[in-house]
Amino acid sequence: MGLSLKPLLCPRSIAVIGASRRRDSIGGAVLHNLLQQPFQGPVYPVNPKASHIQSVPAYPSIGDVPGEVDLAIIVVPAAAVLNVVEACGKKGVKALVVISAGFKEIGGEGVDRQNALVEIVRRYGMRLVGPNCLGILNTDPGVNMNATFAPVQPPPGRIAFSSQSGALGLAILDYARTLNLGISQFVSVGNKADVSGNDLLEFWEQDPGTDLVLFYLESFGNPGKFTQIARRVARTKPIVAVKSGRTVSGSRAASSHTGALAGSDAAVEALFHQSGVIRTDTIEELFDTALLLGSQPIPAGNRVAILTNAGGPGIMAADACEGAGLSLPSLDAKTVKGLKAFLPPEASTRNPVDMIASAVAESFEKALRLLIADKNVDAVIVIFVPPLVTGAQEVARAILAGAAGSKKPVLSCFMGSHGVPESLVSLNAGHIPSYSFPEAAARTLARVARYGQWRTAREGEVPVLKGIDRAKARAALEAVPPGEWMPPPLLADLLQAYGIPANPLRVAATRGEAAVMAKAAGFPVVLKVRSPDVIHKSDVGGVKLRIQSEEEAAKAFDEIAGALRANDPKARFEGVTVERMVEGGVQTIVGMSRDPSFGPIVLFGLGGVTVELLHDVSVRVAPLTDTDAAEMLCEIRGAKLLDGYRGAPPVNRAALWDILHRVSLLAMENQEIGELDLNPVLAFPGDAPALALDARLRRVAPAPVSSADADAAGEPAPAGAA
C-alpha cells in the first residue's frame, strides 16, 4: 500500500490542470508554489486558453503534455472533474490531487459525483487525494514540492502531518512556520475518497525522512485497520492526533448503562490508548507535543525535576506535573551537595530547585547538568523568568550547554515566549523546546511520558478461551428477533455457553409460581420484574430483596406488578424472575456496546444503580488483549476496592479478568449483539468466581460487510472507506 503513494508524494513530474495566470486564484497559487520552491522536476500547466502561464509553456489538455506525468493537481469546476480524471487515466497519470469542491461534502448529486470519481480512479489504477482539499507538499530536497494553495511554506524537517480539514490546514502550516517546526510532508486528505490516514501512516512508516506523524481527524472510516497499523508504527515513530467531535450531540440515545457510558469518544480514547497514539485536545497542544517529540528523547519514566529562578512558577510547575500524573522525586544527596556548592544560602536545593532571581546564566548550566545526572530524575523542566540582571539569550545558551549530550528530555519555559522565538534562536539550534507557561510544559511532558511507558511495555496477546459452546449460543441468539431484548432464560443459556458465571434464575408468571419457585431456590431470594419495556428494573420498583418465605414471595409478586402499572402503565408485565439472594463482595459492571464505526466496545467499572452517576469506568475496543483487561481493572478510581479497602480482603481479580475476555469474545463472534450489561457483577475474595447478578442483552440485525472491512482484508474499498 505504501509504495502506491510514491508517485503522489514523491512525483517526478506534475501537471496542474486548471492552472491560471491569476495569482489570487487557486490554480494560480498552486502553480506559483510549485515554481517558487522550486519542484525538482517538470511542471506542466494545463489550460486551453493560454500558451504560457507564469512564464511556463502551457498545454490545452493533459493529453497534449509531451512527457510522462506522475501527479496531476486538478483545480477545475466540479462538473468538469470527471472528464478531466478520465483523460488523466488515458494519459497514464499515476496519482491525482483533486482540490475542487462540490462532491460528497455537499450531499445529493455531490455523493454520486464522488462515487463516479472513485470508479474512474480505480479503473485506471490511480491514487487520489481529495476531493475538496488544500493539496500536498514534500520538503525533501530531492522533491521540494508545494502542491498547495497555502500562502506560507513551513520549514523543512522530519514531521509528517495529515489534516482532514483544508481550512485548518492553512492555519496548521502557518503555525508550524511560526514555531519553526520542520515538516517533512503535509497532506490535506479532504473527503478521503481514496487515500486515507491509514494509507499515509503506512507510507510514513517506511519513509526515512519522517520521524514523527501528526493527525487532525474528524472521522474514522476503518478504525480496526488504523489500530492494526498504528500499534506497529508507534513502536518506532510517535503518532500524535487531535480528534474532533468529543461531544455527544447527535449520537444515538443509549438504552443500557454500557451504551450510555461507552460512547464514540470513549471508543476513540480507548483506540488511541491501545494503539499508542498520543491524543491532544487542541491543535496548540498537538504542536506542543510535536516540539518535544521532534527534538528530545522520550523519558524513561515519569519523574521530573524542576529548575527555576522564581519560586512562584516553580510551584505552578510542580502542581501541574503532579496533576498530570508526573512525580517530583527527592533529589539524590550528591545532587543536593553539588547545588549547595555554588547556589546562595537563600536558594532551595529541594525539588523544585529555586535558584532565586539573582541566579546567573552559569548557575542554570551547572544546576541543569547536576539534575540530568541525578539517578532519581527522568526529565527536567527549566523555567526562566527574566530579571534585571540576566538576559534570555545568556540563559538559553547556558541551557544548551547544560543539556549537551543528555539522554533525558529537557524542556524550557521562558515565561511569555512560545515555541522558539527569534530571541531564543540558540535554543532552536540545540533542539530544546520552549513553552510560554509551566502548565503547558508539564502537560506535554506527561503525554510523552505515558507514551514512553506504552512503547516499552509488553505487547499484549488475545488469550485463547476454553469451554465455549458456540452452537448453544447461536441457538439462543437466533431465537430472538432483531431489535428485541433477550428474555432471561435465553440470556442465561447464552452466558452459560460462553462460560460467564451468572446467578441461576427461575421464571414465574403468577404469584403462585413465584412462591413455588422461591421455595425451590432456597430462601432468601430476590424477585425481579420481567418486562421487555423496562431498562432499569429498580427505576420502576421492579426489584424485591431478601424474600424469606413463600408468602413474602407471593406478596412481592403483587407489589412488583402494581409498581410497574403505577410507574410505567404502558410497559408489558411478563411476570418475575426468582433468584437466590447473594450478598457481599464488590459490585462491578462488565458491559459491551457496539459502535457503528469502532465495533464492540467493552466496559468495566464499579457497578450497581449508581454506575452512570459515578461514571467510574474503563473502556477498550475489542478484542481485548491480556494487558488491556489487566489495565481496565487498575484504571478505575475505585480500584482500591478490588485490592481490599479498610481491612476488607482483596477480590479475585483473575475472575473479573476472565469475564472481560469472555464478553470480548462473545461480542467479536456474534455481530448481532448490540448491547450487553452485566450489572452488578459481584467480585469475591480468594478463589471464588465472580458472579453476574443481572444481565440485559439486545439483539440487532448484523451489519453487512462494509468497505472498511474489505479494505482491512487488503481489497480495494469504495469511496470513503478508511
The share of residues in extended strands comes to 15-25%
Shape: flat
Instruction: Compute the number of strand runs.
Output: 29
Largest sheet: 7 strands, mixed
Enumerate how many helices there are, as a single number.
Answer: 25
In spatial order, strands of the major sheet run 9-8-11-10-12-13-14
Q: Which percent bin holds the helix content?
A: 25-40%
Which structural class should the secondary elements be placed in? Answer: alpha/beta
| Gap between N and C termini | 13 Å
What does this structure look like?
- The protein is an alpha/beta fold and 722 residues long.
- It is flat and about 100 Å long.
List the main descriptive attributes of the protein structure presented here.
6-stranded antiparallel sheet, alpha/beta, single chain
Question: Any chance you could write out the topology, listing elements then pairs?
Answer:
Elements: H1 6-9, E1 14-17, H2 26-36, E2 43-46, E3 52-53, E4 56-57, E5 71-74, H3 78-91, E6 95-98, H4 109-124, E7 127-129, E8 135-138, E9 145-148, E10 156-163, H5 166-178, E11 183-188, H6 197-206, E12 212-217, H7 223-233, E13 239-243, H8 257-261, H9 264-275, E14 278-280, H10 283-293, E15 304-308, H11 311-323, H12 333-340, E16 353-354, H13 361-373, E17 379-384, H14 392-403, E18 410-414, H15 425-430, E19 434-435, H16 438-456, H17 470-478, H18 488-497, E20 505-508, H19 511-521, E21 525-529, E22 543-547, H20 550-567, E23 576-580, E24 586-595, E25 599-606, H21 611-614, E26 617-621, H22 626-635, H23 639-643, H24 653-669, E27 673-683, E28 691-692, E29 695-699, H25 707-712
Parallel strand pairs: 1-2, 1-5, 5-6, 6-7, 10-11, 10-12, 12-13, 13-14, 15-16, 15-17, 17-18, 18-19
Antiparallel strand pairs: 3-4, 8-9, 8-11, 20-23, 21-22, 21-23, 24-25, 24-27, 25-26, 27-28, 27-29
